[in-house]
Amino acid sequence: MAIAKGYAAQAASEKLTPFTFERREPNADDVVIAIKHCGVCHSDIHMVDNGWGQSLYPIVPGHEITGVVTAVGSGVTRFKEGDRVGVGCFVDSCTTCAQRDLDLEQYQPGLVLTYSGLQPGSDLPTYGGYSDHMVVKEGYVLSIPDNLPLDAAAPLLCAGITLYSPLRHWKAGPGKKVAILGMGGLGHMGVKLGHAMGAEVTVLSQSLSKREDGLKLGADHYYATSDAATFETLAGTFDLLICTVSAELDWNAYLNLLKVDGAMVVVGAPEQPVPVNAFALIPARRTLAGSMIGSIKETQEMLDFCGQHGIVAEIETIAIDQINDAYARMLKSDVRYRFVIDMATL
Ligand code: NAP
Ligand code: ZN
User: Fold this and answer.
1) Cα angle at 155 between 172 and 115, to 5 degrees?
2) Which of 46, 53, 111, 294 could form a disulfide with 165 if both were Cys (CB 3.0 to 4.6 A apart)?
3) Where are the domains of the chain?
4) Is 267 a pocket residue for ligand 1 (Cβ < 6 Å)?
5) CA separation (Å) from 322 to 28, 158, 269, 286, 331?
6) Distance (Å, rounded) from C-alpha 10 to C-alpha 116?
7) Is the CB of 191 under 6 A from ligand 1?
8) What are the angstrom distances between the C-alpha of 128 and each of 12, 40, 64, 118, 133?
9) What pLDDT score does 1 carry?
10) What confidence tens digit (pLDDT) does each residue in 87-98 have?
């Protein structure tokens, strides 16, 4: 066992404070990673607060992890000491089922979350990236392209793949009108990725305060959802609308922005049920769907795509002792556009 340093919440809604814990000794198929940066996802806040009722404490959040390999087990073939790597939202999965072969392992019951999951064969929680190092099976470690800096690349491991996967699945590209609802950590990655795929991208934000940024990041249009006229102007417009918001919304009003056969994809994860009127769907054969992160294979594909297009997140770097303030600011939509912890400050 090796001692690890990190930050943890000891119970629901408690502040994060310094925490020391044990990481396992590497097995033959493990990679040991010195964590350099970790992005701060809104899911970290839901999980610390036990908003989805599944948290295990103490909780060391963090699933947008980048770092450098410091050691590898004897059976590891794809990584060596010094490699620049990333870890996303899960660190193990069901390896026997057909879904693994389909590269859809994120949708299988055997998924082990990077933090607040159960360590395989134990009743201890997994501990995430707000820490100095971690030990991860080779099959769940990603390569970071050489041209991407480790700090701004960290949010690709969750925010990036969470938008890349539905954009690809619903075929965002030339001729497709894509709306991104919410210009936060996930949303701003959706703007960059959708634009790079060649789609016509519209941001739907609460106000126009981030309009200039949105257009600079690749949006073609930017509308305020606080303006009722937006819903009249854009009715029946989009092939795809990706909702990154977890607050209460008028879901029917957003469904009405889809054209015939359009899809609204839920990636933001509200803590309350979503009220939907059947007649927001039926008269235009619309789809309301969900999407969760992406497989390991698709995450590597996304990282390589970002390497080719020079895409990283817009970040605000913080020291680890600023994490509680960062959460408070995210709850006020006051972040442009992702906090990333510099782990050298631990
Ligand atoms: P974030 O950075 O806090 O962004 C959320 C955005 O939602 C805000 O920037 C804001 O955009 C908008 N918003 C906030 N409050 C709102 C309100 N009351 N009404 C309307 N819009 C509001 O969060 P994030 O890290 O992007 O995560 C967003 C959600 O996705 C979270 O629920 C998270 O748990 C979930 N998530 C899901 C997956 C998945 O696999 N499906 C993966 C990661 C995260 P504007 O200021 O532009 O309005
Ligand atoms: Zn996340």
Assistant:
1) 115
2) 294
3) 2-157+313-345, 159-290
4) yes
5) 37, 21, 25, 43, 15
6) 12
7) no
8) 16, 11, 9, 12, 9
9) 77
10) 999 999 977 765
- 333 CA distance to ligand 1 middle (Å): 8
Query: Do 159-290 and 2-157+313-345 have the same topology in CATH?
Result: no
Who contacts 80 (Cβ-Cβ below 8 Å, separation ≥6)? 69, 72
Q: Which residue has the tokens 């008028």?
A: 250
For the record, the structure tokens of 215 come out as 């257009």
Mean pLDDT of the chain: 96
Q: Report how far ligand 2's centroid is from the alpha carbon of 44 (Å).
A: 7
Residues 69, 56: contact at Cβ < 8 Å? no
Return d(Cα 56, Cα 321) in angstroms, integer. 22
E-strand ranges in 40-189 read 65-72, 84-87, 90-92, 112-113, 133-137, 142-143, 177-181
Q: Please return the burial class of 170, using the count of CB atoms within 10 Å of its CB with bins 0-12, 13-18 and 19+.
A: buried
Tokens of 30: 């493990």
Cα–Cα–Cα angle for 33, 110, 71, nearest 5°? 15
Q: What is the pLDDT of residue 103?
A: 87
Separation of alpha carbons 291 and 267, rounded Å: 6
- Expressed in percent and rounded to 5, the helix, strand and coil fractions of the chain are 30, 30, 45
pTM above 0.90, yes or no: yes
Going by alpha carbons, the residue nearest to atom 30 of ligand 1 is 268
Q: Amino acid identity of 143? A: S
Residue whose tokens read 């198929």: 29
**CATH homologous superfamily of 159-290:** NAD(P)-binding Rossmann-like Domain (3.40.50.720)
Contact present, 313 and 338 (Cβ < 8 Å) = yes
Average pLDDT over residues 246-264: 97
pLDDT score at 109: 83
Return the residue whose CA atom lies nearest to atom 11 of ligand 1. Answer: 182
Q: What CATH homologous superfamily does 2-157+313-345 map to?
A: Medium-chain alcohol dehydrogenases, catalytic domain (3.90.180.10)
Assigned token pair, 147:
């041209």
